[in-house]
């Protein structure tokens, strides 16, 4: 075991982690731990843009952006947080430009802006051009630009270090335990501040836009250590994933004029959202697609998908504004989007919920107690700026605004804290035990098979539409898989790059998080944003205008069949906007 | 060699709906210095669907036949740059090429010119060192404006091609000059430099051109176009290198 000591340790090197690192690294001794290389992070897969009311191309202001975010989130958004995000969006975009991000430009040389789902002028009157973008590679450019700046500022990275445990002493952060992929060695990082920026957990589903590596490690290990998780039942399905494969095709395609069509060629979104049509928020569009499919109006021999039609757009526009997604259609489907529509279906995309934080990215141990020295930002966190449904582009915004805030807050806390919190005796004991058990495991169960069954059950039972019966089925499936997980063993007996071992560890996180999602969904007897219960089709503000807080009890173990989940609730912060019916 | 007849539950990719899936042979170069000093070839018979990526087939082997098979992968759709490998003798991203397009037997090796750590995993540090050496970040010497720096669409287009780079190393590890001399910066680092040298907002061109003018720099390029052929993002790598050479000549004259 090796011991390291820093002021700030950041876990994860996607957009939120690197944005935090740029702040913390210039203020105090900072290390960034990532299980990948920074440029492999899934921020790089984001496409369409980052919204900010720059008003470069038409009238706009941050107050409209705040309202859209709250309404888009079906009023489960904490309004103080949304206001901060929309206000700071403008500087967040300008900061990135000054770091060198190559945004698309207007003829005057300003940052160009385009339309995006749910972003409107004057409280819903019409779509507004608010998304700042770089073709359909905005996330790639953000990830590259932040990494370039980290190189410039000599930020210290530990690449291919898997953080597998969070160390807390008397309720305060003491550090993390990491596994070095190259050597199999355990490293303990003692830190005054720990920032989690580990992303989401889309791999609980089968059809997903998420990377293989998005297994919810940060949420999972915090949860095992007693940190609650907020609003986990709200998982976003992006309407336009490539059929069966789930690969993301940006909403920017519809922002540029793309249209969704059913088997009759009908632009069906006109019936569901008469004002903004194809640019309605993602939860509404995803439900509309499945409603069409269920009504027999899906496309293809099995009527199981719909079309994203770009054929009416000039090829020059597709080449300039949507080069990557049109290439995906060619590479993976053999379809030429100039001439033919692209078969799509909703794809599991984004966790609105996560580790609860304050607006300064401080992690909460309950509804209002801050965990000293612990921070979270990005998809792993729940501020909550996304409520029940995130608007497109607001994730790239979230990582920049709250990544920055996390980095500053973590560095300031470290600066004001004279001593490190003592490490527990045997700080690596949990990780040693967990890995030892998997290495010595009976091996009568295969991790890949369990994962595939979990994903299948989650797709069938806990995706866009849910009922009490399907959720109970998912819960019993998960319970059975958790028991089988105890018999998983790894065949690779080596220490070097034992990725089989890490995949088994990641499966433990997926099982735990799938259960939290389903338990929260089962208790929420209403339909709101990304959580749609067919047995409770209406929003219920009397009983459910509140955040779900899930707490774990039971033995400290991965995917433990003995663990229990207790639900509590937290009020939504309402400042200016009283909940209204959500129509577009 | 392992022969597998039917696809178990853990198989990746879409469920087979039509006729029974056909199979392909993956011939993978295996190496684990912890257990054997020499590399060896292993063949695997893998069922596949027409829409399966090569990465799906490799993961099928890992999940169903031999869990110790080591490779890097993340996004699985060609944007993160993790899974560059040598496929039938040319560098590809395993997630950006379909099994059905690769013939009945597919040969898979680690990318060449970087030390192999285990199976398809190589040591990427020398590659990232070269990247870091060319000052791959915006350098400015003017006052920071309140709003954005202005840039015309034409100026923005000037370096668009090289902004697409995902640092997968497919170009650098396809370069015969790099194979023979690991000190050569390699195409990727030159692409990274190009992205800033031709950015109208940047003032660091001279510093970077000095670096690229050194012994390990741009003059080692022999214009074999391997890099351009290898780039999964379609970047005109050789053209970018030529533009850097020309900039260097122009400034020297």
Q: How would you summarize what this structure contains?
A:
Chain A: The active site is at 282 (proton acceptor). The complex is a heterodimer of chains A (584) and B (253). By secondary structure, chain A is of the alpha/beta class.
On the 0-100 scale, what is the average pLDDT of chain A?
A: 97
Helix content of chain B: 25-40%
- Elements of chain B, N to C (H/E): EEHEEEEEHHHHHHHH
Q: Determine the structural class of chain B based on helices, strands and strand pairing.
A: alpha+beta
How helix-rich are the residues of chain A, as a percent range?
A: 25-40%
Q: Kindly provide the radius of gyration of chain B, computed on alpha-carbon positions and rounded to a whole number of angstroms.
A: 21 Å
Question: In terms of topology, how is this protein built?
Answer:
The complex is a heterodimer of chains A (584) and B (253).
Chain A: E1 2-11, H1 15-25, E2 30-34, E3 50-51, H2 62-72, H3 79-99, E4 113-121, E5 126-132, H4 138-152, E6 156-159, E7 161-169, E8 172-180, E9 186-196, H5 217-224, E10 229-230, E11 235-242, H6 252-255, E12 259-261, H7 269-272, H8 282-294, E13 306-309, H9 315-321, H10 323-333, E14 342-351, E15 355-356, E16 362-364, E17 370-376, E18 381-382, H11 394-416, H12 429-440, H13 447-461, E19 465-466, H14 468-485, H15 499-523, E20 532-533, H16 541-544, E21 546-553, E22 564-571
Parallel strand pairs in A: 1-2, 1-9, 2-6, 9-17, 15-18, 19-20
Antiparallel strand pairs in A: 3-5, 4-5, 7-8, 8-9, 10-21, 11-14, 12-13, 13-14, 16-17, 21-22
Helix pairs in contact in A: 1-4, 1-11, 2-3, 3-11, 5-15, 13-14, 13-15, 14-15
Chain B: E1 22-30, E2 40-48, H1 54-64, E3 84-87, E4 90-93, E5 105-109, E6 116-118, E7 121-122, H2 125-133, H3 153-158, H4 160-163, H5 176-180, H6 187-197, H7 205-212, H8 226-230, H9 237-252
Parallel strand pairs in B: 1-5
Antiparallel strand pairs in B: 1-2, 3-4, 3-5, 6-7
Helix pairs in contact in B: 2-6, 6-7, 6-9
Cofactor (chain B): [2Fe-2S] cluster; [3Fe-4S] cluster; [4Fe-4S] cluster
Domain 2Fe-2S ferredoxin-type (chain B): 22-114
EC number (chain B): 1.3.5.1
């Amino acid at each position: 075991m090796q011991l390291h000591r820093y002021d700030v340790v950041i876990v994860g090197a996607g957009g939120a982690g690197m944005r935090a690192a740029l702040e913390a690294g210039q203020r105090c001794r900072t290390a960034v731990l990532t299980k990948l290389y920074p440029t492999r992070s899934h921020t790089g897969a984001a496409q369409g843009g980052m919204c900010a009311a720059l008003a470069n191309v038409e009238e706009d202001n941050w107050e409209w952006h705040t309202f859209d975010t709250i309404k888009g989130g079906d009023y489960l958004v904490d309004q103080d947080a949304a206001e901060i995000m929309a206000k700071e969006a403008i500087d967040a975009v300008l900061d990135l430009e000054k770091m060198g991000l190559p945004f698309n430009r207007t003829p005057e040389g300003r940052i160009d802006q385009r339309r995006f789902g749910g972003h409107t002028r004057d409280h819903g009157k019409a779509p507004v051009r608010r998304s700042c973008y770089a073709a359909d590679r905005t996330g790639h450019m953000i990830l590259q630009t932040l990494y370039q700046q980290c190189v410039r500022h000599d930020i210290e990275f530990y690449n291919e270090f898997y953080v597998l445990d969070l160390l807390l002493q008397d309720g305060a952060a003491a550090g993390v335990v990491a596994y070095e992929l190259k050597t199999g060695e355990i490293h303990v990082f003692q830190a005054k501040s720990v920032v989690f920026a580990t992303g989401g957990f889309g791999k609980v589903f089968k059809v997903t836009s998420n990377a293989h590596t998005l297994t919810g490690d940060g949420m999972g290990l915090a949860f095992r250590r007693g940190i609650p998780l907020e609003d986990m039942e709200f998982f976003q399905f992006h309407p336009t994933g490539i059929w069966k494969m789930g690969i993301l095709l940006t909403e920017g395609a519809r922002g540029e004029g793309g249209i969704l069509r059913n088997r009759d060629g009908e632009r069906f979104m006109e019936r569901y959202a008469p004002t903004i049509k194809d640019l309605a928020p993602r939860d509404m569009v995803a439900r509309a697609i499945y409603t069409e499919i269920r009504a027999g109006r899906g496309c293809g021999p099995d009527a199981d998908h719909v079309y994203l039609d770009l054929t009416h757009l000039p090829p020059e526009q597709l080449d300039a504004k949507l080069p990557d997604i049109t290439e995906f259609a060619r590479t993976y489907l053999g379809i030429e989007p100039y001439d033919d529509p692209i078969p799509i279906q909703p794809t599991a995309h984004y966790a609105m919920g996560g580790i609860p934080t304050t607006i300064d990215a401080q992690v909460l141990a309950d509804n209002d107690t801050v965990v000293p020295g612990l921070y979270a930002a990005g998809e792993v966190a729940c501020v909550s700026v996304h409520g029940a449904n995130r608007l497109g582009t607001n994730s790239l915004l979230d990582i920049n605004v709250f990544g920055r805030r996390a980095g500053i807050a973590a560095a300031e806390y470290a600066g004001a804290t004279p001593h490190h919190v003592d490490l527990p005796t045997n700080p690596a004991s949990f990780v040693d035990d967990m890995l030892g058990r998997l290495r010595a495991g009976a091996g009568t169960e295969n991790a890949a098979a369990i994962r595939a069954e979990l994903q299948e059950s989650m797709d069938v039972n806990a995706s866009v539409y849910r009922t009490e019966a399907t959720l109970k089925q998912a819960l019993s499936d998960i319970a059975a898989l958790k028991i089988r997980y105890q018999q998983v063993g790894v065949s690779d007996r080596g220490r070097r790059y034992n990725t089989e071992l890490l995949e088994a560890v990641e499966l433990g996180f997926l099982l735990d998080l799938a259960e939290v999602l389903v338990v929260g969904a089962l208790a929420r007897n209403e339909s709101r944003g990304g959580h749609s219960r067919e047995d409770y089709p209406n929003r219920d503000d009397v009983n459910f205008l509140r955040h779900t807080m899930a707490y774990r009890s039971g033995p400290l173990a991965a995917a433990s069949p003995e663990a229990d989940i207790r639900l509590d609730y937290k009020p939504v912060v309402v400042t200016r906007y009283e909940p209204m019916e959500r129509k577009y | 060699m392992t022969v597998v007849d039917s696809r178990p539950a853990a198989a990746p990719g879409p469920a087979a709906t039509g006729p029974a899936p056909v199979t392909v042979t993956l011939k993978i170069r295996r190496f684990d210095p912890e257990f054997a000093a020499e590399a060896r070839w292993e063949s695997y018979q893998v069922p596949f669907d027409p829409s399966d990526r090569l990465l799906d087939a490799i993961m099928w082997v890992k999940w169903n036949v031999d869990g110790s098979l080591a490779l890097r992968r993340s996004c699985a759709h060609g944007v993160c740059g993790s899974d560059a490998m040598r496929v039938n003798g040319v560098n590809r991203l395993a997630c950006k090429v379909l099994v059905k397009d690769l013939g009945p037997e597919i040969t898979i090796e680690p990318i060449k010119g970087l030390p192999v750590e285990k199976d398809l995993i190589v040591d990427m540090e020398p590659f990232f060192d070269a990247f870091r050496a060319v000052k791959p970040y915006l350098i400015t010497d003017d006052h920071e404006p309140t709003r954005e720096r202005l840039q015309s669409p034409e100026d923005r287009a000037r370096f668009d091609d090289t902004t697409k780079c995902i640092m997968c190393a497919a170009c650098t590890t396809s370069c015969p000059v790099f194979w023979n001399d690991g000190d050569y910066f390699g195409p990727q680092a030159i692409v990274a430099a190009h992205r800033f040298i031709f950015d109208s907002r940047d003032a660091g061109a001279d510093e970077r051109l000095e670096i690229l003018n050194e012994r390990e720099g741009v003059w080692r390029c022999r214009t074999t176009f391997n890099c351009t052929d290898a780039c999964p993002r379609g970047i005109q790598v050789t053209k970018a290198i030529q533009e850097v050479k020309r900039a260097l000549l122009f400034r020297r004259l």
